[in-house]
Q: What sequence folds into this?
């Protein structure tokens, strides 16, 4: 636990500002992601929003990553590099976005992801809609669980519970990617602790006020085995199944929780679970 960075309320407010930059990147990408656009053009959208806010990309140059956003299409799970690929109606696309602001010489980071179907609910996308829905719901269930849980294992418990429930109603069960997890976040984009999206044996870290966590389940429509391409970034499902990815950054405060990368602090997403978030705005 000594390696986990605990933040003051003022520091969390800095992270909220960075989180709102990420929320604005999401807004702009949702509007721009239409059939016929290239993923490289969408990276340009992300870069413009970051610059307009006077922020900096925490993805660009990170271990050599060449863009400001990860764009993962269909069977790409995570870390897809924007290029000249043209998006088509019905594509299932995940956008993993990040930015940071500097305050008194320290970086404060925001990180969040969403998945959408290009062109809306095109014909033949029922399975993709279901995969996207279960992934988003599992994220919100996990975020809500953190409002009252004692240990970090509540995240994996919540994700698995939602996946099991959807298996019963949808008639098939999504796979939970285990090789990539959520993480702590603060003065760096990736910090301790790792946030597992599945149930694991053993004692997990105790939750403490001042922790800020990026919760990001990645689910697939088939087997959970993945392969990393020769670019050392792009991660695809080995069997070619679709993947979806949702993420938000959440702060654990003295008086509750606040979703720093959601415009409404998470109010709409947490409401079905009886959780009312704290507003820092």
A:
């Amino acid at each position: 636990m000594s390696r986990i960075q605990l933040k003051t309320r003022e520091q969390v407010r800095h992270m909220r500002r960075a989180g709102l930059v990420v929320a604005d990147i999401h807004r702009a990408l949702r509007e721009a992601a239409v059939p016929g656009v290239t993923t490289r053009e969408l990276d340009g959208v992300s870069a413009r929003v970051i610059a307009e806010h006077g922020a900096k990309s925490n993805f660009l140059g990170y271990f050599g990553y060449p863009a400001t956003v990860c764009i993962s299409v269909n069977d790409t799970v995570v870390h897809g590099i924007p290029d000249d690929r043209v998006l088509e109606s019905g594509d299932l696309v995940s956008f993993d976005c990040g930015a940071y602001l500097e305050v008194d010489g320290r970086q404060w980071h925001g990180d969040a992801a969403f998945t959408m179907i290009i062109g809306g609910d095109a014909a033949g996308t029922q399975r993709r809609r279901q995969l996207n829905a279960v992934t988003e719901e599992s994220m919100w269930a996990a975020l809500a669980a953190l409002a009252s849980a004692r240990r970090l294992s509540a995240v994996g418990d919540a994700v698995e519970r939602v996946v099991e429930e959807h298996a019963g109603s949808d008639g098939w069960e999504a796979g939970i990617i285990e090789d990539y997890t959520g993480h702590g976040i603060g003065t760096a984009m990736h910090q301790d602790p790792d946030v597992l999206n599945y149930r694991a044996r053993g004692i997990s870290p105790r939750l403490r006020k001042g922790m800020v966590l990026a919760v990001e389940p990645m689910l697939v429509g088939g087997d959970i085995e993945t392969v990393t391409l020769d670019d050392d970034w792009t991660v695809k499902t080995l069997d070619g199944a679709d993947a979806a990815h949702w993420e938000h950054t959440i702060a654990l405060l003295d008086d509750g929780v606040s979703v720093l990368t959601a415009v409404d602090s998470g109010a709409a997403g947490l409401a079905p679970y009886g959780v009312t978030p704290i507003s820092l705005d």
Summary: The radius of gyration is 18 Å. The first helix runs from residue 9 to 32. The chain has a mean pLDDT of 96. The chain is about 30% helix and 25% strand.
